[in-house]
Design goal:
metal-binding; Cytidine Deaminase, domain 2; 233 residues; alpha+beta; 47% helix; 2 domains; RadC_JAB; single chain; metallopeptidase activity; metalloprotease
Length: 233
Amino acid sequence: MLEENFSARGHRSRLRTRFERDSAVMADYEVLELLLGYGLTRKNTKPLAKELLRRFGSIRGVLNARSDELLDVPGFGAGLMSLWLVVREVLSRHADSAARRREELVTPDAVVCMARARLAGCAYEECWLALVDGRSRLIAWKRLCRGGVSAVAVQPGDVLERALAHKAAGIILVHNHPGGCPTPSRSDIDLTEELRQLSPRLGVRFLDHIIVTDEDCYSLAQNRVIRRQSGSV
C-alpha cells in the first residue's frame, strides 16, 4: 500500500508539472484526474477520471451531473461530493459576477448563463429573480423558492414583494426544468400572464420569464407567449 501511494504521488507530481508548463495540451481526463486528486490525495485517480468521462461525456457533463448520479460511480464518495459542491459554487459565483457589475447591461444570454451555472445538475425546480434598474442593470440575483422534481410553487405576490423590496424597475423570472425540456407548462404561462398584468400597477416592468435546462432555454417573451411590456432586457 505504501509503495502504491508513493507511485500515485509521483505520477500526480509529474502531471501537475505538465499542467503548470502548458495546461492546454493536456487531455480532459488528465485535468479531471488532477482535480479529483484534491479530494483523493492517496489514490490513483486516473481510472475514476476516465470512468466519469465515459459516463457523462465531458468535463462539463461531469460537473453538471446530479449528486445521486455521481455517488453511483464506484470510488466517488461523500468526500469528493463536498469538493464538487465547492467547485460548482465557485463556478456559479463566477458566472454571477459578470452580470453583477453594474456597468454591464443584463441581457437574456447573461441571465441564462447565470441560471445555468447555478442550476446545472439540480434535481428539483428552483425559481430565481433577476431584478434590474431603469437602465436594465442588475440590482439583485436572488432565489425566490425551491420546489420538487417537477414543479415549484410561485406566488405572484412574492415576486412583486421582492421586486419592491429591492426598488427594482424590472423583473426577469427564471426557473429550471430538471427533466430537460424547456417548454413552458400551462401553469408557467398562467403565472407569467398574471405577473404581466399585475406588475404595471406597482410601477414595475415584467420583462421576461426564462426557463432553463442544462442544454437549452426558452424565453416566453422572445417566443411571444406573453406580450412584453415597454422596455427591454
